[in-house]
């Protein structure tokens, strides 16, 4: 495992930035171990929902975690607004960095992740391929 600390800049889209990490590093599997920072608006898909929930205003990232594959990231995040209300869910495009996002990524050189249709869930789910057998 190789760790990669990142700092995202104001104006970057959180999901898009993390989607590019594997290609930038020449890797095929990774995990976001943790992330903190601030956003200016966010889009989440809450549990069981099919539509996005928009979170407006200045918000804090309390926690961010997920897997990274060449097929795209699968990220979950908990956020707090200025009144301290907390919401969490699946990270969608449209989460714009306000001041910073400090993220620790673990790259897994002995693995390759793909997302493939899963009959049980109805979604494309993580499949782990090992390079060492």
UniProtKB/TrEMBL annotation:
<feature type="domain" description="PPC">
    <location>
        <begin position="1"/>
        <end position="129"/>
    </location>
</feature>
<dbReference type="InterPro" id="IPR005175">
    <property type="entry name" value="PPC_dom"/>
</dbReference>
<dbReference type="GO" id="GO:0003677">
    <property type="term" value="F:DNA binding"/>
</dbReference>
<protein>
    <submittedName>
        <fullName>DNA-binding protein</fullName>
    </submittedName>
</protein>
<dbReference type="Pfam" id="PF03479">
    <property type="entry name" value="PCC"/>
</dbReference>
<keyword id="KW-0238">DNA-binding</keyword>
